[in-house]
Amino acid sequence: MDKIKIFDTTLRDGEQAAGASLNAQEKLEIARQLEKLGVDIIEAGFPITSPGDFEAVKLIAQEVRTPVICGLARAIPADIDRAWEALKEAAHPRIHVFISSSEIHMVHQIKKSREEVMELARTMVARAKSYTDDIEFSPMDASRSDPEFLYKLLEAVIDAGATTLNIPDTVGYAIPSEFGELIKGIRQNVPNINKAVISVHCHDDLGMGTANSLAAVKNGARQVECTLNGIGERAGNAALEEVVMALRTRSDFFNFETGINTQEIYRSSRLVSALTGFAIQPNKAVVGENAFRHQSGIHQDGVIKMAKTFEIMDPKEVGIQASSLVLGKLSGRHAFKQHLTELGFDLNEEDFDRAFKAFKDLADKKKDVTDRDIEALVAEELRTTVELYHLDRIQVTSGDRGIPTAAVRLTTPNGGAAEDAALGSGPVDAVYKAINRIVNVPNKLTEFSVKSVTAGIDALGEVLIRIESDGVTYTGRGSDTDIIVASAKAYMNALNRLLRVKNAS
Ligand SMILES: CC(=O)SCCNC(=O)CCNC(=O)[C@H](O)C(C)(C)COP(=O)(O)OP(=O)(O)OC[C@H]1O[C@@H](n2cnc3c(N)ncnc32)[C@H](O)[C@@H]1OP(=O)(O)O
Ligand SMILES: CC(C)C(=O)C(=O)O
């Protein structure tokens, strides 16, 4: 399989993302990780822009020895000289010279004629070539340039010594089929094109950075410029992780490989996020938190039966340990059962049905059902297997003005139901008194404690109580997102134990 070179520009175009700014040490840390990731070229910065960026490029050139280290320069002598000054100690240096080629840029931005641009491009590439052999040239805004002018410009810089011709979609304007045609046109119309590698640099203004890069690969590009997490000027650049994983996952379609050690992708992505302070959106392809998480029952069932039903990539390939099934209100019985097994529960069918129902009820109330929630609810279901009285409904009124009042409805041992109400010193006291009016078995509350078993405002509260009757202590536990309901469940749990003992004796 032929190889596509991966040119990472996280440290140059990536750093142009508004709000991202990295110091030299942070850039070096990312460059070292990019080396582990196996990128072919690191564009370390734009040395003329500031003393700090110059130092960062120089440091990376000195320290990171495997990949090519590249520095950007306008078609201006001072830029090229400064880039070389920063790069000269690199094991494999590259100078990247650029100048605009579209009418709108030439007329309104750099205010130069086609002839002037042609001349500057040729002479500045030659100047860079006097420093090192590896020269990249970019006609900025290529996708909005006149193709005939572009062909001549590219031929001129090949003659001057450019070894890589990078075709940028600078403003993210191109459409994949159109961009693919542009690359094909360059291959067919630039006479000495085989002396250089065709590269592409696509921005994501219309969300097509990756698609345009891949269309270019299909049409002859052999280097792709990209950034981790797709960061970059404005809406960013084609994302490295997307380009690399598309080429790998669809090698049946592209028939190319890259030198990327894909298992380092996730780690690299997190490092860039941490150092730039840019959070990764959960649904970001390949590296987003949800990229390998399945939430709906039908998908979860498929993944349990065979991962490939809903996973086109193995998460391990990108350095994520495993995909996960997120339990929530959309989950089905298969996923719930697997999760229980992983947590060490082996429930019979009846207990499982009850636990599943309780889980669905909880998931309706709580967005994230955690392992602690599940442990609490299974324990709750298991310990109430034999219930004489069951709490069916509860209604409580409390506050700092009125008298706390509770109404309860219990199902009774004979299969019927009983309702009653009571006032109390507080809502829990009112509930317990209302239950006592139905169950009517003398006892004394000796201990009551409540704790949160899961985190967050919608956490499960667990109530533990102890009651005493005829010198014997009975424990009861109950959990619920409402602590008054949890208190009522705990009391019912203790009363049922007490009644079972009394009935048995
Ligand atoms: C598509 C891209 O991502 S290109 C890279 C963008 N990156 C950056 O701009 C990095 C940060 N930039 C900077 O620090 C500064 O803009 C510098 C140091 C590069 C230049 O700063 P200044 O000299 O103050 O110029 P300023 O940025 O205001 O204007 C750019 C000048 O460069 C010229 N210019 C722009 N691109 C090129 C080019 N490729 N070749 C030659 N000249 C160019 C412009 O015409 C303008 O020249 P003018 O002053 O004669 O009008
Ligand atoms: C310097 C060039 C390659 C660039 O960043 C662009 O055109 O977007």
UniProtKB/TrEMBL annotation:
<feature type="binding site">
    <location>
        <position position="201"/>
    </location>
    <ligand>
        <name>Mn(2+)</name>
    </ligand>
</feature>
<feature type="binding site">
    <location>
        <position position="237"/>
    </location>
    <ligand>
        <name>Mn(2+)</name>
    </ligand>
</feature>
<keyword id="KW-0012">Acyltransferase</keyword>
<keyword id="KW-0464">Manganese</keyword>
<dbReference type="GO" id="GO:0009098">
    <property type="term" value="P:L-leucine biosynthetic process"/>
</dbReference>
<comment type="subunit">
    <text>Homodimer.</text>
</comment>
<comment type="function">
    <text>Catalyzes the condensation of the acetyl group of acetyl-CoA with 3-methyl-2-oxobutanoate (2-ketoisovalerate) to form 3-carboxy-3-hydroxy-4-methylpentanoate (2-isopropylmalate).</text>
</comment>
<dbReference type="InterPro" id="IPR036230">
    <property type="entry name" value="LeuA_allosteric_dom_sf"/>
</dbReference>
<feature type="region of interest" description="Regulatory domain">
    <location>
        <begin position="390"/>
        <end position="505"/>
    </location>
</feature>
<keyword id="KW-0963">Cytoplasm</keyword>
<keyword id="KW-0432">Leucine biosynthesis</keyword>
<comment type="similarity">
    <text>Belongs to the alpha-IPM synthase/homocitrate synthase family. LeuA type 1 subfamily.</text>
</comment>
<dbReference type="InterPro" id="IPR013709">
    <property type="entry name" value="2-isopropylmalate_synth_dimer"/>
</dbReference>
<dbReference type="Pfam" id="PF22617">
    <property type="entry name" value="HCS_D2"/>
</dbReference>
<dbReference type="InterPro" id="IPR002034">
    <property type="entry name" value="AIPM/Hcit_synth_CS"/>
</dbReference>
<dbReference type="Pfam" id="PF08502">
    <property type="entry name" value="LeuA_dimer"/>
</dbReference>
<keyword id="KW-0479">Metal-binding</keyword>
<dbReference type="GO" id="GO:0003985">
    <property type="term" value="F:acetyl-CoA C-acetyltransferase activity"/>
</dbReference>
<feature type="binding site">
    <location>
        <position position="13"/>
    </location>
    <ligand>
        <name>Mn(2+)</name>
    </ligand>
</feature>
<keyword id="KW-0808">Transferase</keyword>
<feature type="binding site">
    <location>
        <position position="203"/>
    </location>
    <ligand>
        <name>Mn(2+)</name>
    </ligand>
</feature>
<comment type="pathway">
    <text>Amino-acid biosynthesis; L-leucine biosynthesis; L-leucine from 3-methyl-2-oxobutanoate: step 1/4.</text>
</comment>
<dbReference type="InterPro" id="IPR013785">
    <property type="entry name" value="Aldolase_TIM"/>
</dbReference>
<dbReference type="GO" id="GO:0005737">
    <property type="term" value="C:cytoplasm"/>
</dbReference>
<keyword id="KW-0100">Branched-chain amino acid biosynthesis</keyword>
<dbReference type="InterPro" id="IPR054691">
    <property type="entry name" value="LeuA/HCS_post-cat"/>
</dbReference>
<dbReference type="GO" id="GO:0003852">
    <property type="term" value="F:2-isopropylmalate synthase activity"/>
</dbReference>
<feature type="domain" description="Pyruvate carboxyltransferase">
    <location>
        <begin position="4"/>
        <end position="266"/>
    </location>
</feature>
<protein>
    <recommendedName>
        <fullName>2-isopropylmalate synthase</fullName>
        <ecNumber>2.3.3.13</ecNumber>
    </recommendedName>
</protein>
<dbReference type="InterPro" id="IPR000891">
    <property type="entry name" value="PYR_CT"/>
</dbReference>
<dbReference type="GO" id="GO:0030145">
    <property type="term" value="F:manganese ion binding"/>
</dbReference>
<dbReference type="Pfam" id="PF00682">
    <property type="entry name" value="HMGL-like"/>
</dbReference>
<dbReference type="InterPro" id="IPR005671">
    <property type="entry name" value="LeuA_bact_synth"/>
</dbReference>
<keyword id="KW-0028">Amino-acid biosynthesis</keyword>
<dbReference type="InterPro" id="IPR050073">
    <property type="entry name" value="2-IPM_HCS-like"/>
</dbReference>
